Amino acid sequence: MGRRAAALAAVALLVLTGCSTGDDAVVAGSQFNFVAPEGKTTIRYDSADRQSLEISGEDLFNEGETISTADYEGKVVVINIWGQWCGPCRREAPELQQVYDKTKDDGVQVLGIDVRDHSRAAPQDFMRDRGLTYPSIYDPPGRSLLPLKGYPRNIVPSTIVLDKQHRVAVVFLKELLAEDLLPVVRRLADEPDARRR
């Protein structure tokens, strides 16, 4: 894809998503190099094309404690980038909780990354009020997303699904329903884990 086509794809993605802002930041260093093919909002990677990703940051509820994807070894990890200020995120959060409730015993972990909330109180209240029990990283400036080279970090909500080896399997650059996500995580949970062969 040429530079002009890539730029047009990025513009198309911004138009299609819910809570985008102009708060772009430079992304540096990564194992995961993201390229949005032709403006698609769902990008799937075949097993041979998946790239590793590890993300970590401070726990939203436990200041000073770190949460990392590495804490969930051997599990499918659903990383959801959200903010309590974002309308589509408010609609999507109960859907993610449904996915978590239905799959947490089957080796699936949901992990939120709360961005652009400059006080812990609002996102904490948001999670409590909606009965959200999956953990979240508190990351107002989005530093935990630096390992995502080329990823459109200004698109909120967005969701990255890691396979059991913590390689990026699917990226959703749009608001999701439980029915969008459940078949994906169940399929990934059923994949053999190459590390255990």
Written description of the protein model:
This protein is of the alpha/beta class. Helices cover 27% and strands 20% of the residues. It is built from 4 helices and 10 strands. The chain has helices at residues 3-16, 87-103, 121-129, 178-190; strands spanning 32-33, 42-44, 56-58, 66-68, 76-82, 108-114, 136-138, 148-149, 158-162, 168-172. The strands form 3 sheets. Strands 2-10-9-5-6-7 form a 6-stranded mixed beta sheet, with helices on one face. α3 (121-129) links the parallel β6 (108-114) and β7. α2 (87-103) runs parallel beside α4. The chain is globular.
Write down the overall geometry. globular
Strand order of the largest sheet: 2-10-9-5-6-7
Given the helix and strand composition, which structural class is it? alpha/beta
Straight-line distance between termini: 37 Å
H/E topology pattern: HEEEEEHEHEEEEH
Compute the number of helices: 4
Give the oligomeric state of the chains in this entry, treating copies of one chain as homo and distinct chains as hetero: single chain
Q: Mind telling me the C-alpha Rg?
A: 16 Å
Strand content: 15-25%
Helix content: 25-40%
Count of extended strands: 10
The largest pleated sheet is described as:
6 strands, mixed
Q: Low-confidence segments, ≥5 residues, pLDDT <50?
A: 1-17, 20-31
